[in-house]
Structures are given as structure tokens and as C-alpha cells.
Amino acid sequence: MSQYLTAIDENRVGTYPAVCKSGAGYFFDDVLEYRVWCHPEEGAADVCNGEDYYFAFSNYEEALEFSSHTEGAEAPLVLIRQREWINEPLNGVFEHCKGERIAEWLPEWLERGPRKPGDIEQFLKEAKKDCSE
Known about the structure:
Helices cover 17% and strands 32% of the residues. It has helices spanning 60-68, 119-132, and strands spanning 21-22, 30-38, 53-57, 77-90, 93-105. A hairpin with a 2-residue loop joins β4 (77-90) and β5. It is elongated. The chain starts with 20 loop residues before the first strand and ends with a helix.
């Protein structure tokens, strides 16, 4: 059993665009893959003419194992899909957004689990209450 959710579609692992959003959103819907970014300037093999590159995995443990045994590799990140999320354009100002957003997150941000119906509404209600106290 994996510490975190595994990729929703193992056949798509490694096919998602390298460029995506980073962090934010507070909620996620799907785990797409785990990524380990490698940096030639930090000792990773130079396979992309000096550019950074990543390896994709379907679960956290494989990504962590690879990361811990590869020179010039970062700790794993998780690529997630958000269909609804929270935007915070200013500190304490929250917006409920809908659409599709693909972002890299820290794996520990997955701990509360995927978004459930009503989660965002409850978050906004509590945030509004906190501001009025």
C-alpha cells in the first residue's frame, strides 16, 4: 500500500506537459503522476543539453527511491488535477475557481485526500467567519 494516492491512470504517466502550475489551490481531484526533477548542474546525468528534466512514476515510493539514489535529483513532487480549487490573489482573499488546473504539489499536501462535495464551500464559510472575528 502506498503512503499517498497512486496515479489515476498509469498508462498516462509520463505523458503530461512538463510545464504546469506550481502549488496553490488548497484542494485536488486527481493524482496524475509523481515527478523527480533532475539537475545536471547538481550532478545529474546531462541527457538534455544541460537542461533540467524529470522522470515520472505512478506512485510516491518509486519516485522517492529513485530520488534518493540519483545524484542531482530533487525530492518527489506530485502532479495533480484540480477541477475546482481556491485562488488566493491576496493574502486572506479567496476565490472559488472551476475549470481544469494541472499543478505540481508537495506530496504531503495530499494528506487530507481529494476534494469532496461541499469542501470548498465549507472552506470559504470558515475563512469568512475567521475574517469577521
